[in-house]
Design goal:
The complex is a heterodimer.
Chain A (H helix, E strand, L loop, with lengths): L8 E3 L1 H7 L5 H8 L3 H8 L7 H10 L4 H4 E3 L3
Antiparallel strand pairs in A: 1-2
Helix pairs in contact in A: 2-3
Chain B lengths: L1 H21 L8 H34 L9 H31 L4 H27 L1
Helix pairs in contact in B: 1-2, 1-4, 2-4, 3-4
Classes of the chains: A mainly alpha, B mainly alpha.
């Protein structure tokens, strides 16, 4: 059986927020329907969002999902 | 969310303390008396958890100035499911262990009842600790 590899999912949400008129975490949270704490956890890579939430966040920034969420260094 | 976790844990601790104080003489008490104390303890746990949750929510809103804690999202639901898994797993193990002790090792019925209710209390607290760890 192949060994299960844990992948490290990172994101550029923080950078994209600043590039979008310095959008606040609360504004992003309101737009995608989560709490500000969840946005904080996503930005710190402490929480990987569901596919649905990842799509919502990408849509807010008018980006493809892989431009926002990507596999980081292993 | 944290207010609810702290409220649940606080209510449970309060009920554990109350039942422990009222079960000092449990070896000489009848099963009926022990069951009454434990049932009252569970009632206290529920009421205290509700009251403490309300108090902690008000306190947190006043201190932080943030009145938006009500929103529950996918992260809250995921962490809640981890906590429920841990709590039910712990309670399940304790339940089986108590039944085995009652059936095979002559554990008195009073002790068995207390062990069951206390394992429920402990499971709630363990779930709360896991939740607090995940939200750290």
């Amino acid at each position: 059986m192949p060994k299960k590899k844990k992948i490290n999912i990172e994101n550029s949400v923080r950078k994209l927020r600043f590039d979008n008129n310095e959008m606040t975490q609360q504004e992003l949270a309101d737009l995608v329907g989560v709490s500000r704490q969840t946005v904080v956890a996503i930005e710190k890579y402490k929480y990987t969002p569901s596919l649905e939430l990842a799509f919502k966040i990408s849509t807010v920034f008018n980006k493809e999902i892989q431009e926002v969420f990507y596999i980081g260094e292993q | 969310m944290t207010a609810r976790i702290l409220g649940d844990m606080g209510g449970t601790l309060l009920a554990m303390f109350w039942t422990w104080r009222n079960l000092n003489e449990f070896s000489t008490m009848t099963v009926k008396e022990v069951a009454k104390v434990l049932t009252q303890g569970i009632g206290i746990a529920i009421v205290a958890a509700i009251v403490l949750t309300i108090l902690f929510t008000i306190l947190s809103a006043v201190l932080s100035g943030n009145h938006n804690e009500g929103i529950e999202d996918e992260r809250d639901r995921l962490y809640e499911s981890y906590s429920v898994q841990l709590s039910s797993g712990l309670f399940g193990i304790a339940f089986i262990a108590t039944l085995v002790s009652l059936g095979w090792f002559n554990l008195p019925i009073n002790t068995g009842l207390i062990a069951l209710v206390y394992s429920g209390f402990t499971a709630v607290i363990a779930g709360g600790i896991l939740n607090l760890f995940l939200y750290r």
